[in-house]
């Protein structure tokens, strides 16, 4: 793989971050310790299917064969990456699922969920 195809970016401004997401084909997430997975919603908001190492935050947002895949090994990651790249129908399905999932995390929707929660516990 050429160096131009893999980039490691540390704390870019938001507009550069979104541009980087839009230039990618997949979002590969290797953290075992992330507990919220909000970066996954960010990536999905730009139409990126996610391949993520299994973990609590990842399980909350990634649904296998809908918006990406949860994996448990490097070998499984390779298999999923190849299957997505070689199958346009699967890729398009995951892109659609990613966009739909990201909408649940939009500020307007999460704010409304919080308001609804407070109304429920208040009564």
Record the SSE blueprint:
Layout: H1 14-23, E1 27-29, H2 38-45, E2 50-53, H3 56-61, E3 68-71, H4 74-86, H5 88-104, H6 107-122
Parallel strand pairs: 1-2, 2-3
CATH superfamily: Glycogen Phosphorylase B
How are the strands of the biggest sheet laid out side by side?
1-2-3
Question: Structural class of the secondary structure composition?
Answer: mainly alpha
- Any idea what the radius of gyration is? 16 Å
* CATH architecture verdict: 3-Layer(aba) Sandwich
Average pLDDT, all residues: 89
Largest sheet data: 3 strands, parallel
Describe, in plain words, how this protein is organized in 3D.
With 123 residues, the chain is mainly alpha-helical. It has one domain (9-122): Glycogen Phosphorylase B (Rossmann fold), CATH 3.40.50. The chain is 57% helix and 9% strand. The protein has helices at 14-23, 38-45, 56-61, 74-86, 88-104, 107-122; strands at residues 27-29, 50-53, 68-71. It has a three-stranded parallel sheet, sandwiched between helices. Strand 2 (50-53), helix 3 (56-61) and strand 3 form a beta-alpha-beta unit. Helix 2 packs across helix 5 (88-104). It is globular, with a radius of gyration of 16 Å.
